[in-house]
Amino acid sequence: GELEHRRVKRFYARTNKNRALRQMTQLERRENYLMRTSDRARAKVSKAGKTVATPNPQGHKHKLKNKSKAYIPFAESEALPYTTPDQHHHISPSRNFTFHLSSWLGEHRGDPAIQVN
User: Where do the segments described as Disordered lie (predicted)?
Assistant: First the structure.
């Protein structure tokens, strides 16, 4: 009902309004594909049952999640207000989606994409 109507409105806002139905269909298919891929990856990780223990600044150990997300799923994302073209970024005032960068960097220590010269 109403939730699906809101979802369609979000999809419509992401189109260029030319052949919007086709574009919304492509967006929905892409979202479904990404969700299926995410579910498979999550199942694979939970099947392996791996967790990583790292010390925090207080010296206590805490367990990190199997996979920290560097993204927000589309279904949970928030609509951002208009940002002028001369601003190169927009920071949301909401604190609903926190991200602990130091933990994430620790998990991806060997990744060449985050290496600094």
Answer: 40-65
| DSSP run (H or E) holding 103 | helix 101-107
Q: What's the angle, vertex CA 112, arms to CA 89 and CA 96, rounded to 5?
A: 40
C-beta separation of 53 from 61 below 8 A:
yes
pTM of the model: 0.40
